[in-house]
Design brief:
Structural class: mainly alpha
Number of helices: 9
Number of strands: 0
Shape: elongated
Order of helices and strands: HHHHHHHHH
């Protein structure tokens, strides 16, 4: 049930699962020559099926909506309305999502946070909506889904040989 709610909340805020899958595809295509957009979509759905991701996403979206409605106490209201540069709680929430699949998620998130790929650009530059949390959460989901694909890549190096450290 919360999966459906999280997907619906994303869509109501202008983000489709397909738009997240497009970001995942862009991140992973250089490393995976057989990657299909359907693989990316399945990975996005797998990340979104995790309840902690759903809860984190819904919390961030709710804060964005409350900021739009000017229903937060000051100075928090001003921090979110102005997208205060030193306010890092949005990134902190997103990092919880990215860490599910290792350090590659963190580096991918850092790239997406700066580059604002795909739907992230529109979210970040919106003048009519507050997306302080949403842009980072979407980047977190994309980074996690991308990492998930990287970990499943059959062409990833496998090291069968190992030496014993003990005599």
């Amino acid at each position: 049930m919360t999966y459906d709610a999280a997907a619906k909340w994303l869509e109501q805020r202008g983000v489709t699962l397909e738009s997240i899958a497009d970001i995942v595809y862009e991140l992973q295509k250089p490393y995976n020559d057989v990657l299909r957009i359907d693989d990316c979509m399945e990975s996005v759905k797998a990340v979104l099926r995790k309840r902690e991701v759903q809860y984190t996403l819904m919390t961030g979206i709710a804060l964005d909506v409350l900021a739009e409605r000017k229903q937060l106490p000051e100075p928090l209201q001003s921090m979110l309305t102005e997208d205060e540069s030193l306010y890092g709680v949005d990134e902190t929430l997103a990092l919880g999502i990215t860490s599910m699949y290792g350090m590659i998620g963190l580096t991918s998130f850092g790239y997406l946070d700066k580059a604002k790929v795909g739907v992230l650009s529109g979210l970040n530059n919106s003048k009519s909506h507050v997306h302080v949390f949403l842009d980072d959460l979407v980047a977190g989901i994309a980074a996690a889904a991308s990492s998930r694909i990287a970990h499943q890549n059959e062409k990833a190096n496998v090291y069968d040989r190992y030496d014993s450290l003990l005599p």
